[in-house]
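Collaborator request, handled under Task 6.
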Amino acid sequence: MAEKQWQVVNKHDIMKKWPLHCLVFEDKPAQLKDILKENKVDVERLDPCGRTALHVAVTLGRTECVKILLDHGVDANAVNKQGWNVCQEAVSSGDPEILSLVFTQRDFQRATQRLDGIPELLEDLNAAPDFYIEMKWEFTTWVPFMSKMCPNDTYKIYKQGCNVRVDTTLIGFDQNIVNWERGNMSFIFKGAAEGAEFFEINHDRKLFTKEKLQMREENRETSVFETAQDAINTRMSSPNISTILDTDSIAFTKHKTMWGWGGDKTETIEDHEGKMYDATGIDVVTRIRFEHLTEEEKKSEKSRVSSSGSGLQSVLSGEQQETICDLEDPDIVDQYSLNPYGLSVEEYFNLRLNKSKKDIGRPKDMISKTQKFKATLCLCPTYPLSLQQQVLPVIKLLAISNSHFAKLRDFVALHLPSGFPLKIEIPVFHFLNARITFGNINAIAAPVPGVTSHVTSEPSPEEDLADDETRVTCAIDADRFLPPTDYVDRSRVEQYSGQHIQNDEELLIQLAIQQSLADSGGTGDARQNSWGQRTHLSNSEEDLQRAIRESLAASDQGTSDSTPAKRMDENPGSYDEQLQIALAMSVQDVISKSQEQRNEDDELKRILKLSLTEK
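Structure tokens returned to the collaborator:
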């Protein structure tokens, strides 16, 4: 039955079933605009090859058709039957203008969908009981001797009503492991009926940023999502990479002890016993496309990809690698065309019926890697938290901006066996796994500032009181969802400086000035007022001068009359010189420590890169 709907014979049937695809294929933007104005067609309908009309427009390089479809709100995040999204197809087309258009609309739609979906998420959060939990993320790899160097982190999650706070020290890293960044950060989401607030707090610098989110904002502009040209150029000169977690044939089985002869294997994590399960039938498929690159770029990237999966690594990973290259197909009319086989509309829409390997778009130059993966889970049937009711809404919230939580969300969405997952191991990249362990529920195992635990006993249905069940709840202080009072709003720092902060060193300078003002107390008020009167400075300039004076005074206390602080009194007009002296003394230690940390990180990254390089 499913096959009959694709058996198209002539152009009349094609135009009737897929009018948008047909007009795009024949590059008729005026007629496309007219039919979209009627608003009577399904703009997201798939053709027999599993593409939307936008996919066809991007793949064939129909720039005007792409603009018209995007202007009518067609999904720029759509994924075709082969697993490639619109942006990836735009990269393969080799047209930077189309890629820029798609990028802008994709980011705009993602932001809109995230905001529009928040009200429903808030309802789920508000309905769930409050809790505190710690999620330990350990990243491991099968690459020899590399697991100890993989990053790890413990996410501390606070949930109170519609408010969520997450503390982390691992800001981010990429699939090469070597580029990972540490920091002491908190992310706070405060939800309300009229909107929400999002705080990003940097505890190392005592800075925070605040963003207001309007749930149903009608006047959102796509212009604010325009992608920089450098980003476009980077994507156009990099391979197209797609990593897919294929779980179509996944199966969960209980892990047995003694090679299957014993009972069910169990594991105890923080006094909670869980049964071990194996999840089989999981494939991690990584596909890399090169057709849009120059010959020199292709050679370099293919060499890098091939070396990463050769030798001992390939044996240990069990990878299956396949190279797909259609460039030598004798049926190709023009390998540089986006319709290399010269297909007509009728031929394209009958490809599936004829089981032809021909297609539109540049001939694929692709390497595909498949790794079989077996996940492990430890499920506790009596855990004091509910995965679906309490933890899953928070994971969905974090998945909005974190790809690793998005993978966890997708895995949890599978039909897991009953129980709370005390431990989950899932693939993140084709050679990197993530092991997530839950613990310290409601701060019972270890005290947490701002969290008060409550343990109550609930009578068991049995008469034996020794079997009474305990129920653990917690109360979280409201100040856990606000920046500390001594932290500085970054936007105010930028306003104070009179310009946007351009880099980390300028930010450190502003922090030094703020700290100088905070440490000076009231002793310098009279001098600061006098300084301002003599030089007729604005309030912000007075504060800056006061910071300079106090920094110099603190650094040169007890020295001779020729100190820089005294020279400032004697020569108030040499502002640039005073600023240089003050800043050098105020931020020297901070910058030197920061540089030392960067040097250590660079050295570690260099060692890791060398260890991953094939000898």
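The cover message to the collaborator said: "Residues 297 and 360 are 23 Å apart (CA to CA). The radius of gyration is 30 Å. Please let us know whether this matches your experimental observations."
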